[in-house]
Amino acid sequence: MNxxxxxxxxxxxxxxxxxxxVTAAAMAGxxxxxxxxxVLAGVHLFVLNTPPDVVFGTLYFSDAWQAxxxxxxxxxxxxxxxxxxxxxxxxxxxxxxxxxLLHSVCDLLVHHDDARAQFxxxxxxxxHSPVSYWDRAHYGGIVAPLEIAVCxxxxxxxxxxxxxxxxxxxxxxLMVMEAAPGIMFMLMFRGQGH
Length: 194
Fold this sequence. Notes:
Oligomer: single chain
Helix content: over 70%
Largest sheet: none
Shape: globular
Order of helices and strands: HHHHHHHH
Structural class: mainly alpha
Number of domains: 1
C-alpha cells in the first residue's frame, strides 16, 4: 500500500478525537515502517545521485536493505509490542504499535515481487502475495483503485470524527497524497493499454 493509505488506515483504526497524543501515535505508527525506505532511497536518489532503476531495481532487493525492512515490517515484533501495550493498557503505545502492525499486515497482503520477510525474527521466509497494490501483472489495476476507494471512505469517517480545522486539513492532505499519484498515472497512460 502507499504510505498515505497506511496513515489513513492507522488513524481510522486507532486515532481518538479529543486525545491528540493517541491520534499522533496512530499516525506515526502508520508511517514508521516506511521511514527506512524513504531515508535509504532519499539518500541514494538525492545525495548520492544513484539512478532510480538502481535504487528500486537493485538496492531495494539487496540483503542490506531487506535486513532493515524485515525489522521495521516485522509482524512478530509489532505484534509483540501491541500485545504488551494492551497488557499494560498504555493507550498511546496501543495506537502506535497497533497502527504499525496494521501497516505490516496490509503490506503482507498486497506485495508480490517486492515482498519482505515479515515474520522475522522467527523466520526469513517471504510471502509473495498473489496480488499487488501497484503491479498490473498481479491485479494492481484493481487493487490500486480499491485502495483509493477504501481510503476515501475512511476519510469520510475521519472527517466526521475530527471536527477541528487543523485535523481536517491533515485528513484532506493525506487523501490528496493517496489519490494524486494514481490519478496522474491514469491520466498519463489512458488509452495506452497500461
